[in-house]
């Protein structure tokens, strides 16, 4: 008795594989669109938390003097300790043990509690910058390896740059037009109500008056905007070359 040969019916895996790959690239593009403004902003925050910004800010013309007597030299001596505390692994005694020349502690208990809160926020923010940055670089490397991936990579970076410019533009307008509201809203979001307001005679205010934070916000906004414009220009040129 003759039997017909059994033919195995299989689906071609090529198109399905391409669909799955393209879906991954589209998701990667969406991730980049969101990641660009977040990572750029956090990177600029990290850059101004360095001695160069203190040197620039305290020595620039028009920066307000401390009415209680800190000289520029004393500000430059005391302020780096606050920045170092936020980026090192020391506990609050790093600041709590600091004394003025007359033996009085530089920071009171409310200031120390606030700095502990700021350190928690800073650690989360810089952890996001570190791990998010590593993941983004890996994603860019993967997407760059194929034509479809490169297309979505260009779009993701371009869209992220445009989103960055829109967000920074809105924040700068808000900060310039309504600085007190912006400053208060920012602190209410990240810190418990009533824990971040201090007397003008407190060390934190004497070292970091509102003008300092206003200038810091504009500097972060300016550097982030410049970075986004550079990315946008590079990806636009890249897209034009890909069309040819």
Please tell me about this protein's structure.
- By secondary structure, the chain is mainly α.
- The chain has one domain (23-243).
- Helix content is 75%, strand content 0%.
- The longest helix is centred in the N-terminal third of the chain and has 36 residues, at 13-48.
- The radius of gyration is 25 Å and the shape is elongated.
Domain module tally: 1
Order of helices and strands: HHHHHHHHH
Mean pLDDT: 89
**What best-fitting shape do the alpha-carbon axes yield?**
elongated
Give me the number of helical elements.
Answer: 9
| Content of β-strand | under 5%
Task: Output the structural class.
Answer: mainly alpha
Rg computed from alpha carbons, rounded to a whole number of angstroms: 25 Å
Low-confidence stretches: 6-14
Largest beta-sheet details: none
Q: Termini separation (Å)?
A: 64 Å
Percent of residues in helices comes to over 70%
Based on DSSP secondary structure assignment, what is the total number of beta strands?
A: 0
Note the topology.
Layout: H1 13-48, H2 51-59, H3 72-87, H4 93-96, H5 109-143, H6 147-177, H7 179-190, H8 203-207, H9 210-243
Helix pairs in contact: 1-5, 1-6, 1-9, 2-3, 3-5, 6-7, 6-9
